[in-house]
Write a structure and sequence with these properties.
The chain is α+β, with helices and mostly antiparallel strands. It has 2 domains: 2-46 and 148-218 and 320-381, FAD/NAD(P)-binding domain, CATH 3.50.50; 84-144 and 223-315, D-Amino Acid Oxidase, Chain A, domain 2. It has 8 helices and 19 strands. It has helices spanning 14-25, 58-76, 94-106, 119-125, 148-161, 205-210, 288-299, 343-358, and strands at residues 2-10, 30-33, 49-50, 82-83, 87-91, 115-117, 136-140, 144-146, 165-167, 170-176, 179-184, 189-199, 235-241, 251-254, 257-261, 267-270, 308-315, 325-330, 335-339. The strands form 3 sheets. Strands 1, 2, 9, 10, 11, 12, 18 and 19 form an 8-stranded mixed β-sheet that branches. It has an 8-stranded mixed β-sheet with strand order 6-7-5-14-15-16-13-17. A hairpin with a 2-residue loop joins strand 14 (251-254) and strand 15 (257-261). Helix 1 runs parallel beside helix 8 and helix 2 (58-76) crosses helix 8. The longest helix has 19 residues, at 58-76. The chain is globular, with a radius of gyration of 21 Å. The chain binds flavin-adenine dinucleotide. Flavin-adenine dinucleotide is lined by residues 10-16, 33-36, 40-43, 45-49, 171-172, 200-202, 204, 208, 236, 238, 314-317, 340-345.
């Protein structure tokens, strides 16, 4: 069996769904292929914090800021998945407040709007927080969280309505020039051809690239963390409670814990800032959700009866230097690939600028720093901890 289109997008996570939407909106014939269902990879286990907060280097922070702005524009056009609650950071001691003040004044992005809060302002904005754990705080009003399943389902639906073909449960097993070979869940083999192939298969991208003799430098998410927390630091734990009567109004971060409203009316919570310190096979990993729930209950006494309803282990898509890769990996055969952490924040912006590039519009200046050739120098092959 075979299919032909203008563009094949491999991977229906936040990146692939956003690209399929953008390319189909521009009138191109798109085939979107995924080994599972849409948003079932890393995009199913993400904290989905939309931010350009404390990211480095500057080009990466700027890229994330463009991502935030692209989500704001989508919201203004009627998209309903970016919940721009603002992010409220709690300082529990004088030292934490000084640190926070430095972070707020270092927020060099104009119009980001970050500002310090007094203790009473924090408690007014988040009345559920235990007053005993607040000394001061800060608010980042343009940040928030994104409802990933709704976004992916909606973008997919729009793409299909414009004629895109969707092939779920079809695994890409090889690239032969620009011919994409797949095997479906029932064993059916198929080949897809197109004028260009964009691989946005998250942690599946390196093995697809390898099948064509190409290198795509991601950290192996199954690797174990070393004593310094890297390079195996790509596993994170996201938990949610059942519905609650009185939860956080904002995206809230405090020492050792971050919480936000959940899709089910409950609370989604994750570790902060030590997330990603476990190997995926470490049995200790399963003690983390209870530990974090205790921290949630301490921060929000009204949640002392809340219990955990779901836990997801997410494997970060982490290029070897922690930064985004968006580039042609085989220009002759018109094969492009994207691999990035912070992909929820970046998805809407990347979709626009990558669509420009693969349709012949040239490279956007925001992508200059994120080309593949930076890995050609041995000096850049050192592995860093994840850029948040
Ligand atoms: C714990 C955690 C917390 C995070 N928090 C944030 C956050 O707060 N803010 C933020 O912006 N980002 C965050 N991220 C990062 C963000 O979630 C990811 O960058 C993003 O989800 C990556 O999306 P993707 O589309 O590239 O990959 P994925 O969502 O993994 O999608 C790739 C798709 O490709 C498919 N695939 C793989 N191999 C094949 C194959 N051979 N054939 C066909 N299909 C294939 C998979 O089935 C999958 O559906 C977090 C990540 C984790 C793990």
């Amino acid at each position: 069996m075979s299919s032909r289109s203008s563009f094949i997008v491999v991977g229906a996570g936040v990146i692939g769904c956003s690209l399929a939407d953008e390319l189909s909106r521009r009138g191109h014939a798109v085939a979107l292929i995924d080994a599972g269902e849409a948003a079932s990879g890393t995009s199913a286990a993400t904290f989905a914090w939309i931010n350009a907060n404390s990211k480095s280097p500057d080009e990466y922070r700027q890229l994330n800021y463009l991502g935030l702005q692209a989500h704001e524009r989508a919201s203004a056009l009627g998209a309903r998945w970016f919940h721009q609650t603002g992010m409220l950071q709690v300082a529990a001691s004088g030292d934490e407040a000084s640190q926070l003040e430095r972070n707020v004044s270092n927020a060099a992005l104009p119009a980001y709007g970050a500002r310090m809060l007094t203790r009473s302002e924090v408690l007014e904005l988040e009345p559920g927080i235990d007053p005993d754990v607040v000394v001061a705080g800060a608010v980042y009003p343009r940040e928030g969280w994104l409802d990933v399943p709704t976004m992916c389902a909606s973008l997919l639906e729009h793409s299909i309505a414009r004629g895109a073909q969707y092939f779920p449960f079809e695994k890409v097993v090889g690239l032969d020039g620009s011919i994409v070979r797949t095997v479906a869940a029932d064993g059916t083999e198929r080949s897809h051809t197109a004028n260009a192939v964009i691989i946005a298969a998250g942690n599946g991208t390196p093995s697809i690239a390898r099948s064509a003799g190409l290198d795509f430098p991601l950290i192996d998410p199954e690797g174990n963390a070393d004593a310094a927390g890297s390079p195996g630091a790509s596993v994170g734990i996201i938990s949610s409670t059942g519905p609650v009567a009185f939860g956080p109004r904002h995206f809230v971060r405090a020492t050792g814990i971050a919480v936000r409203p959940a899709r089910n009316g409950g609370v989604t919570f994750a570790d902060h800032p030590t997330g990603g310190m476990w190997g995926i096979n470490d049995p200790e990993i399963w003690s983390v959700p209870n530990l974090l729930l205790e921290r949630v209950r301490r921060l929000y006494p009204s949640l002392r009866e809340a219990s955990t309803e779901s836990v997801s282990l997410g494997k970060r898509v982490l290029p070897e230097d922690g930064l985004t890769i968006a580039d042609w990996i085989d220009p002759a055969n018109r094969i492009y690939a994207i691999g990035t952490h912070s992909g929820v924040t970046l998805s809407a912006h990347l979709a626009t600028v990558v669509a420009d590039e693969v349709t012949g519009g040239g490279r956007h200046e925001s992508l200059e720093r994120f080309a593949l050739h930076r890995f050609n120098s041995a000096a850049t092959h050192g592995v860093k901890a994840p850029a948040r």
